[in-house]
Design a protein that fits this description.
The protein is an alpha/beta fold and 222 residues long. 37% of the residues lie in helices and 17% in strands. The strands form 2 sheets. The chain has a 7-stranded parallel β-sheet with strand order 3-2-1-4-5-6-9, with helices on both faces. A two-stranded parallel sheet has the order 7-8. Helix 2 links the parallel strand 4 and strand 5. The longest helix has 22 residues.
Length: 222
Amino acid sequence: MLLSPILTGASGMVGRAVLLECLDHPDVEKVLMINRHPVEVRHPKLRELILADFSDLECASERLQDYNACFFCAGVSSAGKGEEEYTRLTYDLVTSFAQALHDRQPDLVFTYVSGMGTDPHGRQMWARVKGRTENKLLHMGFRDAYMFRLGMLLPERDLPMKTAWISVMYRLLKPLFPLLRRFSWATTDRKLGRAMIRVAREPQPKKILESADINRLGADGD
């Protein structure tokens, strides 16, 4: 089965990692990336849709046809945000987008990148909000849905990093990447992309995936 995913978050590190793997993968026919602002990536497989409001898909219904997966990789940091604001930018935004998409294309495989430690009953605010988001998505009624609880992402390609401190941290850690790859909580950009493509094409019994699961599912080609 050829895959045609909708993808969000292409301007960030995680979304770009998945996008580049999709563009390289022979089983991906086309990709529709949905962004608030244009992303400077060009490829014959790639289409772009600019939406200021992710929940407003009414004007784009025709462009959403013929896609069979959604890779939701957009997200914001909880740093400096209270629970109300973070809930609005995470739970409300993601679930409203997913519901609007489901209303038009329910026969999709929906994948969502949350994070290691996500827990709807956890002590940390971000973990609770993302846990609630996961639960809502899993029960929304898509053909299938998977939650990617990503730990540390080790880039093998040149990926955008939106904040200066993250860029500095990765430069300092780069010599340690071969060592860090041995830990179960770390994965690479290529494995993440391959794992998303795989779950969209091959149904998996486990719906909440930790980094070890991502590494297993994305190991092809290593």
